Amino acid sequence: MKITFAKPALPEEGAVVVGVLEGRILTPSAAEIETRTFGALTRAMGVSRFEGKKEQSLVLLAPHGLPIARVVLVGLGKAEGLDRRTCEIFGGVAMGQLLAASDTHATVMVDDIADAPLTTADRAAHIACGARLRAWRFDKYCTKEKPEDKPVLKKVQIMIKDVAAARKVFDPLDKTVDAVFMTRTLGNEPANVIYPESFAAEAGKLTEFGLEVEILGEKQMRKLGLNALLAVGQGSARESQLVVLRWFGATDRTARPIALVGKGVTFDSGGISIKPSAGMEDMKYDMSGAGVVVGVLRTLAARKAKVNVVGVVGMVENMPSGTAQRPGDIVTSASGQTIEVLNTDAEGRLVLADALWYAQEHFQPALVIDLATLTGAIVVALGAYHAGLFATDDVLAERLTAAGETVGERLWRMPLADDYDKLIKSDTADMKNVGNREAGSITAAQFLKRFVGEGPWAHIDIAGVSWSTQDMPTVPKGASGFGVRLLERFIAEHYEEKGTES
Ligand code: BES
Ligand code: MN
Ligand code: ZN
Prior knowledge:
Largest sheet: 8 strands, mixed
Structural class: alpha/beta
Helix content: 25-40%
Radius of gyration: 24 Å
Number of strands: 20
CATH topology of the largest domain: Aminopeptidase
Shape: elongated
Strand content: 15-25%
Mean pLDDT: 97
Low-confidence stretches: none
Distance between the termini: 24 Å
Bound molecules: ligand BES, manganese (II) ion, zinc ion
Number of helices: 15
């Protein structure tokens, strides 16, 4: 499906999307349709609950007086509240209605609105971004889908006076959406398709964007002593991999990079501490942290961002077998610290322990951020609407939280404290890999903290937000890609040399 920008003109066919402000206030395009259809909009709104609030929509069929098939009213909320996220939601909600309809063509009218905080071109670009995010589908394996079940929408035109300005704002957003789609695809692919080596191969294709991609196999990792990571993968027939992605785009190529570290468990069966079978299929997206890291590096490279960023993802499959690690095993991590593995299902922290060490040892980063579908406990605490944020630095935490707010990927800060650290004290090794049932997400974060140095560090537990069980305005069902847009914003706003956004 193609999204393009064009000069305003009422279309002759298909569906037309127009905005309505809260209080049923018609935008200029809506008012024009209202006149031409002899008051159809007011009549329709009068017999519905549609008030023009954010996320609301109302579909009108073939109104008399216009040659088109459908008018879709979409709520804009209040004019003063028309920020980028509200525009994305507008685009996403519109797209949701368009995909359910039978039109192949649709037109979205974007009008000037007094009191709106963004320019009309900015709003048009963010509407296009939200629409694209919603339109994504993972249907490559649905070979027998009936035509009537498939969306038929082919072309969406966004009508805006200043086409060139809208395209300019949209270009980097478009690249980030491409990256989100890659991350979503990696999360949706089943574990027989995406396993450590095939994930590494997908990441390897990003050299096309100018990224440097280095792939370490088990032999190299053993030499480096990444025993905690290797222990997780030792029960699998698939070879574990460490994938290192480098984007050194800053004017000073020697400036310390930002390090992004991702958990890449391509399938988490739990290992010998095996999970119950109900819902185990979900554990194909236990590589979402790694997927996000790859997506962020991709979009930065695609727009040649002037910033130094390195991505390190630890790729393993956690399986039970005769070669799998056992509860009680003690492993020596690359940092030299020993870990008593009391539960082989607390594997993400073992992978991250060594990936974090590698990132710091090899790149002396200015700051470290890791992403991981780490704990079921964060799902209990925050559900699907916030990811858990743990940080050793308040400025870093605030910047990440604000970036998340901007793009609608919300974070909620959780505590780190020595009291929790005591819960992972082991009698026989430097630490154990699980605490008791209490504060499961925090003890996991405390575990990771033992593997980071003095510099600023943040850990984002994305277990609850990486998979969407229902269509949301800009996130269709399935792998969400949560984190790509957040980190892209975070980096663009605070670390990129200015004047780089094309
Ligand atoms: N991958 C899981 C966490 C998870 C749960 C991700 C739900 C996505 C959705 C992780 O490896 C895990 O199994 N964690 C255990 C830790 C426990 C054994 C201490 C958990 O949360 O139950
Ligand atoms: Mn697990
Ligand atoms: Zn896991």
